[in-house]
Structure formats: structure tokens, C-alpha cells
Fold this protein.
Amino acid sequence: MRKKLTPLLEWGTLLITTGLVCFFLVVILWDLVSKGASSLSWNFVSSLPTQGMTSGGILPAITGTVLLTMITALVAAPFGVSCAIYLNEYAADNWLTRLIRASIRNLAGVPSIIYGLFGLALFVQGLQMGTSLLSAGLTLGLLSLPYIIITTEEALRRIPASTREAALAVGATQFESIRDVVVPSAMPGMLTGLVLTLSRAAGETAPILFTGVAFYINNPSGYLNQEFMALPYHLYMLSTQHQAIEAVRPLAYGTALVLLIVVFLLNLTAFYIRYKYSKNE
Amino acid sequence: MSNDLVKLSAKGVNLWFGNKQVLKNISVDFEPNKVTALIGPSGCGKSTLLRAFNRMHDLSPDARIEGKFMLENQDLYEKGLSVTQLRRRIGMVFQKANPFPKSIYENINYGLKINDIPKAERPGIIENALRESYIWEEVKDELEKPATRLSGGQQQRLCIARTVALRPEVILMDEPCSALDPLSTLKIEELIVKLKKDFTIVIVTHNMQQAQRVADKTVFMYLGEIIEEGQTKDMFANPKNELTANYVKGHFG
Ligand SMILES: Nc1ncnc2c1ncn2[C@@H]1O[C@H](COP(=O)(O)OP(=O)(O)O)[C@@H](O)[C@H]1O
Ligand SMILES: [Mg+2]
């Protein structure tokens, strides 16, 4: 009797929790779509905000977020991937390596507002970059670094030793084996980690708060040395700081929807890249 | 050492992983253009010995090796010797087929490329290697297909082709058929017998029948030591040591 009940119970619990998670997801999505869809239009995504942001579009916030994410990727990906390759392929398994690894894991747990303060101290003031797209991108890059290192190392770890040995056995150096065989094999996993990290970074508000994001600018963001608008901050402003909160509510939902779409597109890219790689395998 | 009858040899070899001694005072010679089988129960150190010859332990920091390994007159652990050059002279085929995540063609081309073989010569070498490995007829129309789509037996023959393409002098094979079905196994065994015309082959195998089918000589190992070696026929017909006798009769494994 017990033998029969337990699997049913386990199965049921799993089903219910999964269902619950999906339920909330659907509710949130539905709420966003039903309240935000009406403000979505070509004009909304392609024009500047007007009349104290009570009308017009959110183009600067979109370009700001896209550019910011690109800078984050350019900063974090090369360093993060190199670091992960070093840790997983070259570093000896000793206390120092373990300490470094533990520190990286801890860094991944540091609240993002701390990164914001750090960016303010280092980039904005220390290095005299001012509040700018570059300062904010570098700050987000730092925030993303530990995640990229962790996910890349995870992807590299999944490649079996026999794959590395295959290259060594035909006369490849360790570097050649990593460059030509290990990294290409780990690429789908690495890219997934990268894109998930970036889509998280794209939605961050705290790290850019002190480092360069602006409430309002009257041109499409795009200068490294100037302040910029970003979707998550715009959303935050519209929903908490605006003088006519009720009036701009549909715009806030619209912004949220656009942010969600941007993140979704990023994830779609990851999916597509993985699909292409798996076809070539 | 420069005996015409010795291609590859180990002398007085001890090997430890950490504190654990895995090879104990191993001395063994492999004759040119012969197939030598390494047999013995699981964990007795066959793979470890095989991998010492092409210096696959170089990357495991906890491996410590004593003794002398020679390829003809070349000390394989000589200071300053290029390991990549050495591995080109001593090729290896692994237990589980491990093609590169590239096309069939690229799988062979890669080794040629990193060994600086002129581009113009490569297509010929690749075709020849695939023919020698008896896989050409099966793949000639789909050389651009990812190698991982091949069957297990085809993948292993491709791995052999990848190895022979570099014209090594010795080919080390670590249980190359252990993951294959009987038909693929048979094909690879035929291939091994044909390849000895051009190469010296050392093959680790679990399979007594396989050793008898392909090997001229057989070496029996037990707990890190060589217990007995000799002509395969003699060894299976009249094992001198009791352990060997029990093992080849399948009493333990
Ligand atoms: N990289 C390694 N680190 C530690 N121990 C190892 C390593 N490789 C093999 N060993 C140990 O060495 C012994 C011999 O292994 P192996 O040579 O693979 O045996 P065989 O190929 O004869 O089955 C085993 O006890 C195994 O656990
Ligand atoms: Mg083995």
C-alpha cells in the first residue's frame, strides 16, 4: 500500500509545484499583456518621450538598454571566458584555486546595489568617467563577470577528458586542444550562460542608478560618455517617481512589456545558437 | 637498445597516482610490425601503461613516473623533447570513440593542419587514410556530415583513420572495441591485422578471443606487474604462470 502511495504522492507534489510556478508566470504575463498591450505601437518604440513623459515613446530607453547590454557583453565575456578557461583547464587543483573559485561564487551573491556603489566609486569618480553609458556598462560588466565565469566553467567541466585527449593524441598542444576542440564543444553551454547572464543584466536597475542612467534625455541614448535612459529604470520612474503616476500607468506597463520582449529576444538568440550548434554536432 | 627487434620499450617503470603505486617495475619490449595485446583484469594498470608511452599522464599533476621509455633510440621522457612531435610518432585510439565535434573530413584534416602538412597534400592523405581504415566506401559521399552522426563502429574507424593519417610509427589502442557490437568489432579486428604491415600496434583488450585473433604477442598484467609475456599461441595454449592460466581460462576478470 505504502509502496503504491509514495510514488503517487511524489508525483503529485511535483505536479502541483510545477503547476503553481507556471500559474504565477501566466498570471504575471497576462497582467502585463492586458494592461500594457494597448500602449504598444510603432510610435511607442520609435519616438522620444514627450510632455513630461506622459506621452510619446520610449526609444531612448530601448537603445540605452540595448547598448548597455552590448557593452556589458563586450566587457564581461572576454574576461569571464578567459578566467573560466584558466580555472578549469590550467589552474592546479590547490587551495589557491579553490579560494579563487569560492570568492567568485561569493561575488555572484553580492547584492547588485553594492556593485552600483562600487561602480560609482571606481568608474564615475575614481577613473573620472562621470555618470555615463560607459561607467554603467563597466559596472554591469563587473556584476556579470562572476556569473559568466561560473556558467562557462560549468560548460567546460561537462566536456569529457577523452575529448581533450583526442586532440592531444594527434599532436595538438594543450592550447590548441582547448581552442579547437574543447571550447567549440562547450560553446552551446557557454553561450546559454552568457545570454542568461546578459538578460539578467539588462533588467538590472540598481547598478546603473548611480553610474549613468538618467530620468530623461532628449535624444536617443548612444554616447559612451553621456547619460542614457534604460528600460528598467524608466519603468521604475514611471511607476514610483512620476508626478502623474496614474496617468502614465499604461506607459509603465508598456515599458515592462518591451523590457520583457527584449529579454525574450535575447533568450531566443541563445536558443537559436544552440540549435545551430547541435545541428553541426 | 637499438635492437632491430624492439620498436618501443619500457624499462624499470614504476608509476604512482598520489600515494598509490599503479605500475610496479614494468619492463617490456614491443616488436616492430607486430600486434601486441595487453591483457589483465580491470584496474591492473593496462591503460596506465599504454598512456605512459605517449605521455598522456603529463597533464595529471598527481602522476609520478620512474623508469625509461624508448621509441627506438629516442628517450620519450627526455628533457626538451617536443611532446607534440612525439605524439605524432606514437598515435592513440581510445576506448570510447572520441571524434572531434567537426565534420568527418575535418576530423582527419585537423591533425594534418596542426602538424603543418601542406594543404595540397591533405585531400589525398585523407582519402587514403579513410580507405586504409575501411570506412571510405561508407562515408565518401558525406564527408561534410558531422562525425558524431556516424555509428559507434564507424566513429571508431574514423578515429583510427585520424591516427593513421599522420603516419605514426606506433599505434596504441585502449580497448578500441569495448563499446562496439560484434560486427563492428570484427571489422576493426580485420583492420588491425592489416595495419600491422605499416605500424607497430599495442592493443589493450578485455576480450581473450580478440587477443588470440589479432595479437602476435601477448602480455599479461596483474596488479600493476607483468606476470607473463610471450607468443600469443603459446601463452593461451600453455600458460606458465598459474595466474595467467586462470585468467585466460576466464576464471576471473
Ligand atoms: N588519473 C588517475 N588518478 C588516480 N588513479 C588512477 C588514475 N588513472 C587510473 N588510476 C588507477 O590506477 C589503476 C589502474 O588503472 P587502469 O590503468 O585504468 O587499469 P586498466 O586499464 O587495466 O583497467 C586503477 O586502480 C585506477 O583506479
Ligand atoms: Mg583501461
Summary: The two ends of chain B are 34 Å apart (CA to CA). Chain B has one domain: 3-99+168-248. The first strand of chain B starts at residue 8 and ends at 17. The interface with chain A takes residues 54, 56, 59, 61, 84-85, 87-88, 91-92, 94-96, 98-102, 110-111, 114-115, 146, 148, 159, 162-163, 166 of chain B (CB under 8 Å).
